[in-house]
Write a structure and sequence with these properties.
The complex is a heterodimer of chains A (75) and B (153). Chain A is built from six helices and two strands, in the order βαααααβα. Chain A has 75 residues and is mainly alpha-helical. By secondary structure, chain B is mainly α. Classes of the chains: A mainly alpha (75), B mainly alpha (153). At the A-B interface, α3 of A face loops of B.
């Protein structure tokens, strides 16, 4: 998927563990893991809001758009 | 009080009874075919030869398809009972059931040349298979929506 979740990078910068973050943004560790591993299909504004608040960052620090390599399919 | 669980248990029980009943009926196929040969009027099909083998083969193939259908129906009901509803596994079960119905239509379609009644049975089986196929397509879409919902954080 061209949307990359850089949550682990932000977590490392803020020195916060997954368990702590999950507790602070009130989601289960399993759901946080889905988000971190990029398996999530969508993210609620409310979740994004809490993430930005706890990690003291902007949505762009967590989410990144990376164009897919179109040549990969041709090969 | 009648509830969802009891309804599911009843469905499972009926599937099991039908599973055994089909085995019993399959064992009685020669007797049933002989009886049908006597009671069915001759000359209501294009082919005039004996219907013993064509109808026997039809019924045996239908029995096999029926048992496969019931096996998948049983699995489907068990999954629903365990709250596994909109999962790809259930789509697979519905697909098998639908194909079994469509497969039953083939031998009965051929049997229709001996007795025109076969065409009606074939049509009914094919129609039922088609309905199930549409249901399966709906289920596939529901699985996608469920997955999207599960992976929305």
């Amino acid at each position: 998927m061209p949307i990359i979740v850089n949550l682990d990078v932000m977590m490392a910068k803020r020195k916060i563990s997954s368990g702590d973050l999950a507790k602070k943004i009130e989601i289960t560790p399993a759901n946080l893991s889905i988000l971190k591993t990029g398996k999530a299909k969508a993210i609620r504004f409310s979740t994004l809001e809490k993430l930005c608040e706890v990690l003291d960052c902007q949505p762009a620090d967590i989410l990144e758009f990376r164009k897919e390599d179109s040549h990969a399919d041709e090969i | 009080m009648w509830n969802q669980d009891k309804s599911l248990n009843l469905s499972i029980l009926l599937v099991r009874i039908l599973f055994v009943l089909i085995i019993v009926l399959a064992l009685c196929v020669p007797i049933m075919v002989r009886w049908y040969e006597i009671v069915s009027p001759e000359g209501v099909g294009l082919l005039k030869s004996s219907i013993f083998w064509p109808l026997s083969i039809c019924l045996y193939l239908s029995a096999v398809c029926g048992e496969v259908c019931l096996y998948h129906l049983h699995k489907l009901l068990k999954n629903i009972k365990n709250d596994i509803v909109f999962k790809p596994e259930n789509c697979k079960h519905l697909r098998y059931i639908s194909w079994c119905c469509l497969l039953v239509a083939i031998p009965f379609g051929i049997f229709g040349f001996w007795r025109f009644l076969g065409f009606f049975v074939a049509f009914a089986a094919a129609f039922f298979g088609l309905v199930l196929r549409v249901l399966k397509n709906v289920f596939v879409r529901a699985v996608e929506i469920q997955e999207e919902n599960d992976y929305t954080i």
